[in-house]
User: Fold these one by one.
Assistant:
Number 1:
Amino acid sequence: MTSKANNIALEELKKKRSCRVKGIRLLADRLEAGDIPLVLTEPECRLETLMRSIDTARELQEKIEDIDIDDEFGVELEELSIVTKAKLMSLICALKTADETIPAVPAYGGPTRARLPKLALPQFSGNFSDFKNFIGLFETLVHNDQSIPIIEKFNHLLSCLSGDALGTVRAFQVTETNYEKAMASLKRVYDNDCLIFKNHIDALFSLPKMTQQSASSLRNLIDTASSIYGSLLSIGDDKKISNAMIIHLVLSRVDPVTKEKWEEQLEYEKLPLWTDCERLLNRRHQHLSAENSDKPKQEQKAVTSKPHNRSSFACSTANTKNQQCSYCNAKGHLLTDCSPFGRLAVMQRFEFAKTASLCINCLQQGHSVVQCKAKKCRSRGCSHHTLLHRYTVANKTL
């Protein structure tokens, strides 16, 4: 830019800065004179406006200094901004304190009602079954309250989250525009009817079995089951719950590959229907039938006529009975035959295998996948166990 153009641009920037600074000074004078209405919502709104004015004035000051490096107004602007913001926040704090100590005055001479204590904000760490309760309460107390500035809503949201849930929104910078994005990201991950249903059903099946007559144990069983049923009704009616229950029971009996085929095409945002599951199982049956018919007859004959080695079978059975499952710690079965482990999502199975230092090809301890001599994944021939396979096989139908 030419010198003349620079001068014109500089004058224009200084005019804009002057307008912003004038507004900040006016607010500072009103605060000094005590000329701000003592109603909490007005100072809070003014704080939001003040922050925007300060940000804009700082941006203008940076542009001015790019043209005129000798401009020293930045120091005065920073001092004015800090003093004004501090005064306004002190006023807000004082009004909040007074609001908590002064009893509510009934309107229109109505009956006096005791002032209820403020509700504590809900906490959420990433448990799918807790999400609907959390988001409903958070939206009531914070999100839908128009008197709360957006930045403050964002900070309240961060203070309510922990663990995996906090990691979902941690990447977003705390700005007004990012608040809605963070809320949408949280709902996209955790507002998941299928996983919520699975967590509730797992909790139902994990209830301890009553070994003797006990009124307290029966009461606890009834209350827990009723609570789970009520939570399930929040994601679907009786018909949808019945469909999902049947699917859950049937898939707990199928082989891992068939279960994985179902999970790969599942729409997690809504509860599935039995008709969809039945259709997939029928396609899977047709595929397995065609696969078996393609085997050479001699191979089938050799398999069926191969004599059983009773001694080795007995030894294998004995070894299995003596081994302990590395997931549920029960004896009598291996990890690959563990029903609770099979009900986990594929990524959860993989994380457990890595945490327990298991070979991801055979799910046994004592060696790495490089040293493993077991067969590879049946779905694609990759060096991991079929229970850990999570990718759709290309150009291959059920």
Note: Confidence is low (pLDDT under 50) at residues 104-113, 305-318, 391-398.
Number 2:
Amino acid sequence: MSSPSSASPPSAAPSLNPKVIGVSVAAAVGGFLFGFDTSVINGAVDALSGEFALGAGLTGFAVSSALIGCAVGAWFAGSLANRFGRIPVMVIAAILFLASAIGSGLAFGVWYLILWRVVGGLGVGAASVIAPAYIAEVAPARYRGRLGSLQQLAIVLGIFTALLSNALIANTSGGAAEQFWFGIGAWRWMFMIEAVPAAIYGIMALFLPESPRYLIGKGEIDKASKVLLDVTGEIDVNLKIEQIRTSLEREEKESLRDLRGQTAGLQPIVWLGILLSLFQQLVGINVIFYYSTTLWRSVGFDESQALLTSTITSVMNIVATIIAIALVDRVGRRVMLLVGSAGMTVSLGLMALAFSFADTSGGADALTLPEPWSTIALIAANAFVLFFGTTWGPLVWVLLGEIFPNRIRASALAVAAAAQWAANFAVSTTFPALAEVGLTLAYGLYAVFALMSLGFVWRWVPETKDRELEDMDDLQLGRAAR
């Protein structure tokens, strides 16, 4: 088993070229739309529910329907990226975002809204696959963690921007159900405003260079050389091309044309990516962002306090991601994931304990939490966000972009991302039912998954810091990887 230190180093370590920062930021705009699109409905849900006279079940499906599109978009994005390139998939995702923004805003019935939300989900799923794959393939090894973390930073900025734009539109119009510009309902503008960043993303994508590893796989060596020299900042371009070509040829000889293997039908490295994705969602992070305002109102906060608390939590998530960017290429992926899992286990356990003291005499929708447990729950929830935001949030995207061999990277990442969206859908749709039984059960279950993630990282996840993508071909899993 070769350890990270024994991996063959590049002939020369390239410096951080400003151009690679620029193209990574541009690619990560897909992550911004990812966060914006999945969060924007929160401010509109009550108004559209009233306008379309929706029951609780249909309202819940309208909220979560985008996640179905996310899973489908992620599943097919990999094969499309392998066939047509990374950049065309970005452009397709931008078109889907643009169509969804306008279609959702102009929807004249709930099923039309759901249809356009699914279309937007297809764009989110595609962006969740293509951005980390592209960034990993253009970034120098020693900066790949920081540049890969831009995806998560863009996601949390998108979430925050959606919350902020929703609040501004609602406050300006007097409420999400009121009329706004041109006599159109404010909640409709909450969706349509996404057309602006969607158009910007599409235009930026048209000017991005194609991934050098994709170009080499297609035999376009001159174009790949130019990208490696001008964008990646590679010093010995010929050597790097030969390393990439050897990696691709070796995978071809080993018949790594798909993801099949002897471990339950898939290669072990693919299972590693799937399990990383599942654990990222099964700890319940999106419960905090999808239901936080409702949660804090249920424990005694008024509407403005609950909204402020949710906004503060979103800002904290941004700060946590910036901290992760600063640490990931210095500390390493594995150690940070272990610390994150331990911290999430404790904080979620405290939340479960705190809600065991809740007074539910008024029913599940009117529970109250006495002091000091309401304060403990608030601190624990934000500690959970902090531990997640500095570790599992950004690092899973970094690892998914780098752990897979060159030839299967896009396809394997697509499968892992699809699993992530499926888990997101499962957690988001089951939380209300779990909460009716008791929030102690819900957060206790998430704490168990956080503890399981600790054991999973300790046993199976290797360190990938400073490894070239071509060295990932020899990546082995298990205790020896430490």
Note: Residues 1-13, 253-257 have pLDDT under 50 and may be disordered.
Number 3:
Amino acid sequence: MTHLIEISTNQSRHSVTAALRLDLPQDVIDTFLAATEQPLRMAVDHTMSTGDYFLSRGRPPRHPVQAGSQATPFGGVPVLLSRLKAGDVLYSGGNDMSFAYGPHITEPLVARGPVLARVPVEQLDAFWTFGRDVWEASYRKHELSIITVVRKGA
């Protein structure tokens, strides 16, 4: 069963669809599916110095949930940011995600969670433009970007 998610932002006319990986631990998938029963809206934190990558954080869940950190990544498998590929979508538990929208990620830091989904090759150009629109909003315009993730099917 393939789960798809649609990723959009208030800063871009582009949106992309990504397919969830099925080889992840079931608790990671279950936690994400619970977090996205309704559309998940998150504020963007683009560090600028990391490259083609940004974090997004939603409202904290009402009840405690498992979440990852750089010391103890969600899902238990460390992933270096500098090894991510364009199109990787990461989930760190709770209502937080991050997105590798291009090939230039400079930080050799551990991600807070695993690669949850991947944007297909045919949508990578749109995803790069999407990421650059978020970057422009943060860097040049000083505007808040809101990312929305919606489950599209099972």
Note: The radius of gyration is 14 Å.
